[in-house]
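Researcher: Quick one. two chains, 418 residues in total.
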Amino acid sequence: MTGERRIRILIAKPGLDGHDRGAKVVARALRDAGMEVIYTGIRQTPEMIVEAALQEDVNAIGLSILSGAHMDLFPKIMAGLKEKGMDDVVVFAGGIFPADDLSALKEMGIQAVFRPGTTTQEIIDSIKANLS
Amino acid sequence: MKAVDGVRAGDIRALARLITMVENQAPEAGEALRLLHSYTGKAHTIGITGAPGVGKSTLVDQLAREFRHRSKTVGIIAVDPSSPFTKGAILGDRVRMQDLCQDRGVFIRSMASRGAWGGLAETTADVITALDAFGKDIILVETVGAGQDEVEVAKTAQTILVATIPGTGDDIQAMKAGILEIAHIYVVNKADKEGADLVAAELEHYVSPIVEDGWQVPVVKTVAIENRGIAALAESIENHRLYLETTGKMAGTMEEKARHQVLAIAQRELMGKLLKIGANNGQMDS
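Model:
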């Protein structure tokens, strides 16, 4: 009963696209996998995401993006996390990403990238593996 | 203790981590709370409760802004329910508090109820202690969507807002005992909807006999999403604080909270031990 840990995850949608169905499906799946999911809603700036992650002390952040602005927004989020000393937070991304960007995303510290066709179970397994 | 020093120094990361420690009931949490306790007693803790969908999160959002205009720093604790089956939770109250995220004078923490009864998490009172010691002037505590019996917040906060909306006349009847009794202020939110005056009148009718030692429970109409009635609500909250202070009741609320908090900790410890003994003897599965 005491000393129990729970996985806390922030699911955020950076940028201007308003299609949050995917983010909500993932949030729900993570909840059903026993995680505590903080959902922030759409149109988040990198600063808002970093601040929410800081206050909520999350173990992981899932970024959902469909607009194509990931190469602009993600580095800002990663830099913000680093600045706050939150390098240990696992960051993963879901949405539309050209194959050409995948190595750059990996390099900037995104632990996993989930493109169309990924099952929610794969996402859950990946998060659990990254946090163990 | 390093965690406590960080909180006292105004380090947000330290505060966030300490809250996690408290929430997980980590072994060091007790000592941290003991140390923090001596720095508490300055914050005004306001509980916001009411049924799902009455606009609690939006009220909290607008009240936070109003208090920021009044140069107060604000801490927010938003509790949402955990699944009884998977223990998972969706904590979605930040969606209604978007702009506050940018304000360094506001700290928002979402909490899952983690199986506790009563509309709060077991450790919500301890998180209030942390925010108070951090130096927040105002602490807004939003309960899970509560019905009739979730009155835990009454033992945890100093000023209790019970929010309702038009079209729930029968619910007010049902609420007469329980949640309605714990209110210091009634809020009729979404007051631009038909029937708001009726709900307000019904509340006033039921409430008027409830004058507790000189505090007449006011009914405040708001349209939180449009920021209407929020200044008046903040004024009522301020009046209640003045009432608590001038009547010497503020000290009483703090003693009562501390008493409740100590009992809750003892209860958790005992329950933990009991389950352990049971598990060791193979008499209980969980």
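The longest strand of chain B covers residues 44-50.
Researcher: Thanks, that's what I needed.
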